[in-house]
Write a structure and sequence with these properties.
The complex is a heterodimer of chains A (243) and B (293). Chain A contains 10 helices and 10 strands. Chain A has 243 residues and is of the alpha/beta class. Classes of the chains: A alpha/beta (243), B mainly alpha (293). The structure holds adenosine-5'-triphosphate and magnesium ion (MG). The site of magnesium ion (MG) has 4 residues of chain A, from helix 1.
């Protein structure tokens, strides 16, 4: 019954920054309708992978396919048009646009009416509605993260990639964000590729997980498998192997 | 100085200031989006003057003016595509140097093509009509310039604050990469910025040269520098600031000339630049200058 289509497939992807390899031949798949997480330490290459999928960085070699179509090296605009969106690391809301304008710009390529989607985002994040005329730069970190997620939803993506949405947020806000991620996944069948340093949280909500170390994928499995793996526990969950 | 001559000078100053404002906006918009001082902007303005001379040879002004605007816009956009776009990820200094090179290129090209002798700027009959309000009389262009400037600035502000392309411009000016992630084609937005700046420079050139009556290949240098100072005075990046800066410099310059200090009128502008940079580097309306990441 569970023959899922792969929405995104990455084969042997390598990326360099001026001669220094940041990603060294990784492969991963993101099945439609699932939450897939990519965990790993600082500098492992997680952001680079997402930025390459989004077309911000050109890969050195390897192939990225989306619904069976080769999308390697195409422009970011075309990627967004195809239904892939990235919530970048550090939120990056537009500080001198209002909350509402930030949402509207998330739907930049759409020509239809946005009101339903704006309402939907406001329903997910009521705090944004109260602040709809506020400049995004004056929002708290948590609110900015909500806005960054809401803005990404506005393009009606099939695949949302999120780069460390929990970064620098209080645990209670992190929980809210994680709940929203599960909600859009469950209720709307949205596919999510989640990069996190907070491995514990990410693996709990993810169907599948990959562990990335210095540019390579070193482990993969279901969220549960990785949560219970001794090596993962030791390296990423802050639990000693012996106990 | 009688009251009516004072009014006369103020009117002349405001009119000159209007033309300066239109040019200054081009500097400020390009700076806002690329953090680039487009040194070639004054020379684009000069080229617009020549385009007008040649267009008026065989065309009526009603056709010549829009045609000159279009050609100037194309020139501005092509310069960006050829000389700035390839350097976008290079260090900021490279693109500045490229801008200086384009400035000299245009001056030399104009000298080569049109010689360094001043060419008479054609008269646009209706702009030259003498107009009188009370005791103050002047040609129509003097009255029209500031009014047209304000109308264009209001239109531009509307475009930037209330349209989709304007929102994209504001986004791109803050964060290229995230703007791209929204699906915005930043190359188009940057081209649009150069198009608007060049269009305003063309309008400014037609108004300015109608008053000055001749064009040389170096006609863009001093006005260009003054308008850059106007943009800095207003707070570089701010469009209303550039407009106010343009009016202030136009007025001060004219009044100094009227008072008999014409030798100092240019020096005044640059002294002003030094004073602003020393005491209020963000200008009158400028936001804090945050270096782009
Ligand atoms: N623009 C860049 N230029 C040069 N090197 C870069 C650039 N961006 C990233 N790198 C390098 O590539 C490697 C991978 O970086 P990346 O940002 O992908 O890591 P990450 O896994 O996202 O880390 P973090 O968890 O800290 O965000 C690092 O060694 C980093 O220094
Ligand atoms: Mg990262």
């Amino acid at each position: 019954m569970m023959t899922k289509n792969n929405l995104l497939t990455i084969e042997n992807l390598s990326v360099s920054y001026g001669g220094i390899k940041a990603v060294k031949g990784i492969s991963l798949t993101v099945p439609e309708g699932e939450i897939v997480t990519l965990i790993g330490a600082n500098g492992a290459g997680k952001s680079t992978i997402l930025r390459t999928i989004a077309g911000l960085v050109k890969p050195e070699s390897g192939k990225i396919s989306y619904r069976g179509e080769d999308i390697t090296g195409i422009s970011t605009t075309s990627i967004v048009e195809k239904g892939i969106t990235l919530v970048p690391e550090g939120r990056r809301v537009f500080p001198d646009l209002t909350v509402l304008e930030n949402l509207k710009i998330g739907a930049y390529l759409r020509k239809d009416n946005l009101q339903d989607d704006i309402n939907r985002v406001y329903k997910l994040f009521p705090r944004l509605q109260e602040r709809s005329w506020q400049l995004a730069g004056t929002l708290s970190g948590g609110e900015q993260q909500m806005l960054a997620v809401g803005r990404a939803l506005m393009s009606r993506p099939k695949l949302i990639m999120m780069d460390e949405p929990s970064l620098g947020l209080a645990p209670i806000i992190v929980n809210d964000i994680m709940n929203i991620i599960t909600t859009v996944n469950k209720e709307e069948g949205m596919t999510i590729l989640l990069v996190e340093q907070n491995a514990n949280l990410a693996l709990r909500i993810a169907h599948r997980g990959y562990v990335c170390e210095t540019g390579r994928i070193t482990m993969e499995g279901t969220g549960m498998e990785l949560l219970n793996d001794e090596n993962v526990k030791a390296a990423y969950l802050g639990k000693s192997k012996n106990k | 100085m009688t009251l009516s001559t004072l009014f006369q000078h103020i009117l002349t100053g405001i009119s000159l200031g209007g033309a300066y404002a239109l040019i200054a906006i081009g500097y400020t918009m390009v700076y806002g989006i690329l953090r680039l001082i487009n040194f070639a902007h004054g020379d684009i303005f000069m080229m617009a003057g020549y385009f007008m001379i040649f267009a008026m040879v065989s065309l009526p002004w009603q056709i010549a003016i829009p045609l000159v605007c279009i050609i100037t816009v194309i020139l501005g956009v092509v310069i960006e595509r050829v000389a700035y776009k390839p350097l976008r990820s290079a260090p900021r200094m490279s693109i500045m140097i490229s801008a200086i090179a384009i400035s000299y290129l245009l001056q030399n090209l104009a000298t080569y093509l049109f010689t360094a002798l001043p060419r008479a700027f054609p008269e646009i009959p209706f702009l030259k009509k003498i107009f009188q309000i009370g005791n103050v009389s002047s040609s129509l262009v003097t009255f029209i310039t500031p009014i047209l400037t304000i109308i264009l600035v209001v239109g531009l502000m509307f475009l930037i604050n209330h349209t989709k392309i304007g929102m994209a411009m504001r986004a791109v000016s803050k964060d290229f990469e995230t703007a791209q992630l929204m699906g915005i084609r930043i190359n188009n937005v940057i081209s649009a910025t150069f198009a608007i700046g060049s269009f305003l420079a063309a309008v400014g050139a037609i108004l300015y040269f109608t008053d000055r009556m001749s064009v040389t290949p170096f006609s863009g240098m001093l006005p260009g520098l003054k308008c850059f100072v106007a943009a800095v005075l207003g707070g570089i990046g701010s469009i209303p600031g550039a407009m106010v800066g343009g009016f202030v410099i136009g007025l001060c310059e004219t009044i100094l000339v009227a008072m008999g200090y014409s030798t100092f009128s240019d020096a005044f502008t640059f002294t002003l630049l030094i004073i602003i940079l020393l005491f209020r580097p963000t200008g009158l309306f400028g936001e804090k200058i945050i270096d782009k990441v």
